């Protein structure tokens, strides 16, 4: 069994809180600019529960060298439901 020291748990918790705060700010920005149709949607790209990056489908595609269609597939409700507890790639629209 993996044993994590208490100070490392605190660091993980602090980082998680910071990431969630950043995501919250990104969501606010997106809501603020959502009235403009030409602004692309942002996606959160995960490997399991680990956030890899936030960006548009195009940016994530370039950085990960995955096809845009593959990333769109990772964001489909059916794929997300089927793989919700698995350590696989997932993409979610920021809301």
Polypeptide structure, described:
This protein has a 3-stranded antiparallel β-sheet with strand order 2-1-3. By secondary structure, the protein is of the alpha+beta class. A hairpin with a 2-residue loop joins β1 (43-47) and β2 (50-55). The chain has one domain (6-93). The protein has helices at 6-33, 57-64, 68-74, 77-82, and strands at 43-47, 50-55, 89-93.
Order of helices and strands: HEEHHHE
How many strands?
A: 3
Sheet with the most strands? 3 strands, antiparallel
Distance between the termini: 36 Å
Would you tell me the overall average pLDDT? 83
Query: How are the strands ordered across the major sheet?
Result: 2-1-3
**Any idea how many domains?**
1
Helix amount, in percent? 40-55%
Strand content: 15-25%
SS summary, helix count: 4
List keywords for this structure.
95 residues; alpha+beta; three-stranded antiparallel sheet; 52% helix; globular
Strand and helix layout:
Blueprint: H1 6-33, E1 43-47, E2 50-55, H2 57-64, H3 68-74, H4 77-82, E3 89-93
Antiparallel strand pairs: 1-2, 1-3
